[in-house]
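Blinded run. Sample ID left blank on purpose so nobody reads anything into the name before looking at the predicted structure. Input follows.
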Amino acid sequence: MSAFGGSSLTTDAPVPKDRPIDASDIPSTYVPARNTIFLSLALAYAETLEAPLIYIGAKVLDYSGYPDCRPDYLHAFEEVARLGTRTGVLGKGIEIRAPLLHLTKAEIIRMGASLGVPFHLTHSCYDPAADGKACGRCDSCRIRREGFQAAGLPDPIAYVEV
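Blinded prediction complete.
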């Protein structure tokens, strides 16, 4: 995605830190058309497998405000899949499922804990340090930390700043 640029995640532009998280404000960490690209690749593969479903981990609660994580976007992409694939034209369709869409980060963490997710192996940071530690101050780190706190569970990863 760095070939396209347009985001502080795909260029050398600084990742915002300690900003008020406002889902109505699209931050500089938005990667242009990222979910459209991912879903397009998944759609092509799903069609070749004759798979009726595509799952995506998008969420609309306590998130940074990316437009391609909203329910109306996901419904629109389903319409693209219906209109733009042989599967769709033949009336079979491919459904987009986003099971985390309306869950809070705390609910997702609790669910992960109940499933035995090895959270110590996960990473959310948009701007990790050279040693791999999470910055602790970007939107993603803050949302993760708040989610663990609200879930009543310790976050097992190391942060540069807490």
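Unblinding after everyone has recorded impressions. The chain has a mean pLDDT of 92.
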